[in-house]
Write a structure and sequence with these properties.
The complex is a heterodimer.
Chain A: H1 2-6, H2 8-17, H3 25-59, H4 75-85, H5 96-113, H6 131-152, H7 156-187, H8 192-198, E1 202-203, E2 206-207, H9 214-230, H10 242-245, H11 255-280, H12 296-317, H13 323-351, H14 356-376
Helix pairs in contact in A: 3-11, 3-12, 4-11, 5-6, 5-11, 6-7, 7-9, 7-13, 9-11, 9-13, 11-12, 13-14
Chain B: H1 3-21, H2 25-45, H3 49-73, H4 89-113, H5 125-134, H6 137-158
Classes of the chains: A mainly alpha, B mainly alpha.
């Protein structure tokens, strides 16, 4: 029974495919999995928009959406219909083909990333040998679409937003890749299913997730920072800073094209949280050995939604960074610490089992963190501030 | 030679031609991106996963973006008034023909001298990794040194001159 619940979607897929002739079965099973991905994640996106608006409203002492359905839960349906009925405006001097292609490229590239994520035991669309590389290759393609959107609109705000977005994405992509490399070094594989399998054991009741090691914790924090910047989420949402750039690279998009950008942004959030879960949080494995009876896909999606709620929480809490702060933070703090973390990971790998490596690795990382923080903040003075307009 | 090969080759060649023949520079950059993507698909259709994904990651994710940045930051995005053909096109044709001839000669020779293998060797990412740190470790280190030197050089070029420094 427990096994059946765990494999319910796999069994369902096999049962449905068995109705077809044998020659069509491989194609049909792939098609079914693709349809499932294409349906589940946009549905999750619709739910997340409600949660985000409700959560932000709660943080800001408002009520939030409460008109459509009970507690405003039907709000995304109303939003969807609204964006479909709105006029699709293309600026007359815009570069029409590129302007049209940009949201399509974005959504396609983001959807491709889900293909390699293991969402449960035996639940992965393509178990690729170079899965992680595939994921990052697809992530890199989204930068092109952001640039296409910003440039083809022929609007200074769009172009500025796109330039900011691309500069930011390139800077933090380095960190994203390097923090994942430490996981690859320990797991010894680029295949995401093998990385999950490497974290599947338990000591006592505690799991062998990589986040519970010194290098894994640092790697995960660096990954989380870089992921927030990659998805242009607050506090790294300069590319679409409303107060400066209207809406950044999608200023000139309206109607359903705008909805596609919105969708792409949230899907990127889901997929990057899913990858973080897979790399550091043990993928679909249970957090305690006595909880393994709960189906694996429930664990994957609850970890994913937890990350999403952290994203929302940060958006409601932190103010936006300035462009120079953003770049300095990436290149002078996060990147050196990630590089050091790679060294520590190698040390961890070759020091062998035992408590010695815990002490040595933690000491190096904590010392580096304190030292770099102190040196970086040496010239800054944070006294009480006086704001003229508030007096 | 499957239909996929012809489709992807057509896409690559069309992208490359458009990159040379189009007038607005940003269109050329986007056309180059299409050509890069075509090359990546060619690698993938040859079962070279690592090369294919590395092609996308490096060429579309970094090189294409770099080209675009260079165009936008140097105000080269306006349309050129006199055509896109440079005055030294004859020399360009000669050089590219020479390069093409050399490459074609090398490929034709290697195809005849290599024995045709019956089974396609399965090269996994693991094999590539092992080869890089085992047999090809010296080239890898040299490339790493070169890249480090290039990075430091770029930082020095971009660094602000200090006020009052002699």
């Amino acid at each position: 029974m427990i096994d059946k619940m765990d494999q319910i979607f796999v069994l369902l897929q096999h049962w449905l495919v068995a109705f077809l002739p044998l020659s069509l079965q491989p194609v049909a099973s792939v098609l079914l999995a693709v349809v499932a991905i294409v349906c589940v994640f946009p549905a999750l996106f619709a739910l997340t928009t409600v949660f985000e608006r409700k959560g932000l409203a709660r943080i800001q002492n408002r009520i939030g959406p409460n008109r459509v359905g009970p507690f405003g839960i039907m709000q995304p349906i109303a939003d969807g219909i609204k964006s479909l009925t709105k006029e699709d405006i293309v600026p007359s001097i815009a570069n029409a083909p590129v302007h049209f292609l940009a949201p399509v490229v974005l959504v396609v590239a983001v959807f491709m990333g889900f293909a390699v994520l293991p969402m449960g035991r035996n639940m992965v669309l393509v178990d690729m040998d170079a899965g992680l590389l595939f994921y990052f290759a697809m992530g890199a393609s989204t930068e092109v679409s952001v640039f296409m959107a910003g440039w083809s609109s022929r609007n200074k705000y769009s172009l500025l937003g796109a330039m900011r977005a691309v500069a930011q994405m390139i800077s933090y992509e380095v960190v994203l890749l390097l923090s994942s490399v430490s996981v690859v070094m320990i797991a010894g594989s680029l295949s995401l299913t093998k990385i999950v399998a490497a974290q599947s054991g338990y000591t006592g009741i505690f799991p062998h997730w990589y986040i519970f090691t010194p290098w894994g914790l640092v790697g995960f924090i660096m990954y989380a920072i870089a992921a927030t910047a990659e998805t242009n989420r607050s506090p790294f949402d300069l590319p679409e800073g409303e107060s400066e750039l209207v809406a950044g690279y999608h200023t000139e998009y309206s109607g359903f094209k705008f909805a596609l950008f919105f969708l792409g942004e949230y899907l990127a959030m889901f997929s990057i949280s899913g990858l973080g879960t897979t790399l550091f949080l043990g993928g679909w494995s249970a957090p305690f050995s006595f909880l393994t009876f709960i189906p694996s896909w429930i664990w994957f999606f609850s970890k994913l939604m937890m990350s999403i709620f952290v994203f929302i929480w940060m958006r409601g809490t932190l103010p936006r960074l300035r462009q120079d702060q953003l770049m300095n933070f990436a290149w002078k703090f996060v990147l050196p610490l990630t590089l050091l973390n790679l060294m520590v990971t190698a040390l961890w790998r070759f020091m062998g089992e035992g408590w010695a490596r815990w002490g040595v690795c933690s000491a190096i990382l904590i010392a580096a963190y304190i030292l770099m923080g102190r040196v970086g903040m040496y010239k800054e003075h944070f006294g009480p501030r006086r704001y003229r307009y508030a007096e | 030679m499957s239909p996929v090969f012809y489709l992807v080759s057509a896409m690559t060649v069309a992208g490359a031609l458009a990159a040379v023949l189009l007038k607005p520079l940003v269109h050329c950059a986007l056309a180059v991106t299409v050509a890069f993507a075509g090359l990546a698909f060619l690698f993938l259709s040859l079962d070279a996963q690592f090369a294919g994904f590395a092609q996308i990651l490096v060429y579309i994710g970094a090189v294409a973006i770099l080209i675009v940045f260079a165009i936008l930051l140097t105000k080269g995005s306006e349309l050129p008034r006199d055509g896109v053909f440079s005055r030294s096109w004859l020399a360009g044709v000669v050089i590219s023909a020479a390069v093409f001839a050399a490459l074609g000669w090398a490929i034709l020779r290697s195809a005849w001298t290599l024995p045709h293998e019956a089974a396609v060797p399965a090269v996994t990412v693991h094999d590539i990794g092992v080869a890089l740190v085992d047999r090809y470790v010296l080239p890898l280190e040299i490339v790493a040194l070169l890249l480090t030197a290039a990075t430091i050089g770029a930082v020095i070029v971009a660094m602000h001159e200090k006020e009052g420094a002699k």
